[in-house]
């Protein structure tokens, strides 16, 4: 038991997109939140290096040193909204050590330092909540930790970076250039402070690590995830994929089998009939396959001030209810008691089996296709679909697009190297994994 609180005081550190959105949502819904929490929830202290013109703080005290908030004895819940893993980690540690509960949206911090931070929180009898860290406003952490608690989870797959999905959607639907759409995503507040995290798959990797930890009951394993971003995708690959009945999405995939655990984020061809193939713009979606429930799908805004604030405030309301009742919720941070976390073994990428999309540029003469198919055949790889485009006027080379059947990545790489060495093939072969996503 902890002392029952009649009013729960919040300290917000960082008043940018999400911090500002959270401040506003707490102000705008003050009565509603008090009714839901059974206690008043008030922002007592803000830590911000500078004012945010879009988020006037009125008479709420503002400190320029965010650590003043961690030192404020009146603050019960510190909301970390500065991002990064250096100062943010020091701040969260200081707050936990001072006996404050912490709410964060910081997936980099949870993925990289969650193991230590959850232990520190437990040591000090306080909570560390992170719903906003994955898939923005979608309550996926609660779904995995509580709603699916009766299931063994075999796999999950998700579109978990809003910026990347926004870019791919705009490129496909409007033919817009990558850089221009990225700038718009930054202006809309979707992108990370360093947007290479979004477009190189690092942000999705952080989120996948968190999802896998909850789904499989393993510690955060950031070094085990393979990450590839969307920067090498070309409009022609998006177009050819569509001709073959697929959409290209940036996907995070976590799978558990007798071989071990696969953790990977990369561009993926998905059959166009799948729900995930039709998740567009800044929306995210996570498909989770439980052994009892079967496939379940969670969809909503993956980034942006108000959607992300929705998840931050949900954590705050949960905590306020618990503090009002004088009892923290006994659900562990990762859904299982720390001593019950399993030691995972991971499948190496060369052993991961998926179908592949390949695009090669070949000389337009008889026999070339049979050379390509026989080099794939030598590695036991068969072909599901193949299209050879007509050569442009005066051209002797043609694009050839192949979809393979399921192939071990190591075997595929051997075949691709042999095909690239053929004198009739020009340059490197573009390749993208395919996921059928049938449960
Ligand atoms: N933007 C989104 O849609 C979104 C969604 C989910 C999670 N997140 C996460 O939320 C966190 C915040 O992201 P954001 O988009 O609001 O970023 P932001 O850049 O808009 O806001 C961060 C704020 O923190 C301040 N800040 C940074 N370092 C500081 C320091 N040392 N001392 C004082 N102030 C400092 C900055 O001045 C800025 O105002 C990040 O962890 C991010 O990954 C963002
Ligand atoms: N930059 C992230 C924010 C949400 O975590 C994204 O675009 O998905
Ligand atoms: Na979420």
UniProtKB/TrEMBL annotation:
InterPro entries: ACT-like_dom_sf, ACT_dom, Asp/hSer_DH_NAD-bd, HDH, HDH_cat, HDH_CS, NAD(P)-bd_dom_sf. Its EC number is 1.1.1.3. GO terms for biological process: methionine biosynthetic process; threonine biosynthetic process. The active site is at 207 (proton donor). It is an enzyme of class 1 (oxidoreductase). Residues 357-434 form the ACT domain. The keyword Transferase does not apply. It catalyses: L-homoserine + NAD(+) = L-aspartate 4-semialdehyde + NADH + H(+). Pfam families: ACT, Homoserine_dh, NAD_binding_3. NADP(+) binds at residues 13-20. L-homoserine binds at residue 192. GO terms for molecular function: homoserine dehydrogenase activity; NADP binding. Keywords: Amino-acid biosynthesis, Methionine biosynthesis, NADP, Oxidoreductase, Threonine biosynthesis. SUPFAM superfamilies: ACT-like (SSF55021), Glyceraldehyde-3-phosphate dehydrogenase-like, C-terminal domain (SSF55347), NAD(P)-binding Rossmann-fold domains (SSF51735). NADPH binds at residue 107. Pathway: Amino-acid biosynthesis; L-threonine biosynthesis; L-threonine from L-aspartate: step 3/5; Amino-acid biosynthesis; L-methionine biosynthesis via de novo pathway; L-homoserine from L-aspartate: step 3/3. Belongs to the homoserine dehydrogenase family. This is Homoserine dehydrogenase. It comes from Parahalioglobus pacificus. The gene is hom.
């Amino acid at each position: 038991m902890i002392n029952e609180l009649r009013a729960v005081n919040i300290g917000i550190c960082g008043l940018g997109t999400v911090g500002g959105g959270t401040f506003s949502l707490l102000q705008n819904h003050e009565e509603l939140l008090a009714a839901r929490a059974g206690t008043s929830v008030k922002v007592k202290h803000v830590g911000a290096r500078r004012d945010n013109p879009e988020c006037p703080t009125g008479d709420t005290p503002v400190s320029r040193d965010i650590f003043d908030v961690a030192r404020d004895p009146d603050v019960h819940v510190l909301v970390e909204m500065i991002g990064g893993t250096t100062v943010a980690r020091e701040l969260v540690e200081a707050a936990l050590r001072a006996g404050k509960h912490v709410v964060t949206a910081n997936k980099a911090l949870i993925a990289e330092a969650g193991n230590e931070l959850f232990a520190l929180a437990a040591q000090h009898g306080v909570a560390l909540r992170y719903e906003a860290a994955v898939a923005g406003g979608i309550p996926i952490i609660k779904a995995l930790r509580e709603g699916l608690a009766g299931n063994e989870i075999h796999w999950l797959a998700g579109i978990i970076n809003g910026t990347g999905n926004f870019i791919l959607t705009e490129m496909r639907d409007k033919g817009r250039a990558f850089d221009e759409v990225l700038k718009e995503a930054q202006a809309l507040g979707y992108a990370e402070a360093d947007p290479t995290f979004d477009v190189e798959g690092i942000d999705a990797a952080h989120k996948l690590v968190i999802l896998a930890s909850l789904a499989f009951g393993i510690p955060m394993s950031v070094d085990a995830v393979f990450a590839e971003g969307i920067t090498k995708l070309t409009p022609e690959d998006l177009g050819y994929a569509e001709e073959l009945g697929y959409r290209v999405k940036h996907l995070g995939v976590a799978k558990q089998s007798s071989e071990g655990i696969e953790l990977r984020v990369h561009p993926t061809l998905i059959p166009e009939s799948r729900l995930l193939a039709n998740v567009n713009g800044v929306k995210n979606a996570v498909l989770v396959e439980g052994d009892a429930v079967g496939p379940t799908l969670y969809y909503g805004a993956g980034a942006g001030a108000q959607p992300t604030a929705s998840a931050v405030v949900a954590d705050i309301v949960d905590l306020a209810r618990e503090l009002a009742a004088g009892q923290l919720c006994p659900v562990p941070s990762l859904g299982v008691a720390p001593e019950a976390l399993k030691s995972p073994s991971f499948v190496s990428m060369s052993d991961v089996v998926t179908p592949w999309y390949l695009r090669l540029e070949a000389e337009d003469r008889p026999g070339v296709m049979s050379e390509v198919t026989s080099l794939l055949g030598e590695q036991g790889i068969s072909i599901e679909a193949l299209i050879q485009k007509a050569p442009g006027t005066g051209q002797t080379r043609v694009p050839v697009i192949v979809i393979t059947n399921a192939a071990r990545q190591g075997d595929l790489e051997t075949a691709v190297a042999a095909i690239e060495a053929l004198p009739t093939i020009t340059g490197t072969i573009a390749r993208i994994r395919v996921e059928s996503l049938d449960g």
